[in-house]
């Protein structure tokens, strides 16, 4: 949306330049005049290409207005292009990019905190397992190792369905429905063992 707004603003400046300041867009190189604003399309492309890249705006890329009868208007044109396009609109675009990277960084930080504070597979918090020494580390390495679940999924994806076991068929059917009920969410061996002890 911001890029579209920038294009519209540059197009408006192109219209003004094409109608009033076209003579400043003719540069003489090696004795030949090179016209940068012959028609609206080339004028617009020139403003997009050179106007945005120039540190001081479009005024750096075209002939200076020194002594011209439209000198005051050209100065206003150059200054407003520099202010609105180079300073404001490009700053907005840069700000949006920085914000997007900031949001990504925050999301990655949140994921890292989640992985360190609870099991990715069952979602049970670290404090539950750390009642015993190294409980959480042992749980995520042995009981609910994320890599083992991924290997199992890759195994059933690549295995012919005619060779599935009953368990593999169950998981495959759920996986095709994009249903993750085969993950033991909120459950683990330790919890099951404690519940069995309490039942006795």
Describe this structure as you would to a colleague.
Strand 1 and strand 2 (32-35) form a beta hairpin. Helix 1 packs across helix 2 (40-53). This protein has 8 helices and 2 strands, in the order H-E-E-H-H-H-H-H-H-H. The mean pLDDT is 82. It is mostly helical.
How would you summarize this macromolecular structure in one to three sentences?
This protein is mainly α and 200 residues long.
Assembly type of the chains comes to single chain
What is the H/E order? HEEHHHHHHH
What is the count of helical runs? 8
User: What count of domains describes the coordinates?
Assistant: 2
Distance between the termini: 65 Å
What is the overall pLDDT average?
Answer: 82
Number of β-strand runs: 2
What's the arrangement of secondary structure elements?
Elements: H1 2-20, E1 26-29, E2 32-35, H2 40-53, H3 71-117, H4 126-129, H5 135-143, H6 146-158, H7 166-176, H8 189-199
Antiparallel strand pairs: 1-2
Helix pairs in contact: 1-2, 1-3
Tags for this entry?
200 residues; two-stranded antiparallel sheet; 8 helices; membrane; Ion_trans domain-containing protein
């Amino acid at each position: 949306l911001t890029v579209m707004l920038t294009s519209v603003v540059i197009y408006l400046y192109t219209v003004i330049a094409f109608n009033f300041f076209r003579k400043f867009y003719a540069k003489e190189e090696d004795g030949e005049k090179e016209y940068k604003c012959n028609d609206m399309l080339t004028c617009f492309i020139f403003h997009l290409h050179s106007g945005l890249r120039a540190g001081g705006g479009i005024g750096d890329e075209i002939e200076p207005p020194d002594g011209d009868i439209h000198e005051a208007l050209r100065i206003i044109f150059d200054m407003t292009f520099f202010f609105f396009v180079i300073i404001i609109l490009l700053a907005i675009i840069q700000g949006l990019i920085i914000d997007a990277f900031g949001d990504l960084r925050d999301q990655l930080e949140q994921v890292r905190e989640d992985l360190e504070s609870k099991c990715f597979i069952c979602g049970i918090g670290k404090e539950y397992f750390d009642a015993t020494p190294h409980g959480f580390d042992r749980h995520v390495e042995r009981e609910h190792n994320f890599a083992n679940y991924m290997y199992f999924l890759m195994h059933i994806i690549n295995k012919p369905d005619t060779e599935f076991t009953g368990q593999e068929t169950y998981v495959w059917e759920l996986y095709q429905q994009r249903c993750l009920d085969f993950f033991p969410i909120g459950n683990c061996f330790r919890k099951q063992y404690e519940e069995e002890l309490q039942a006795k």
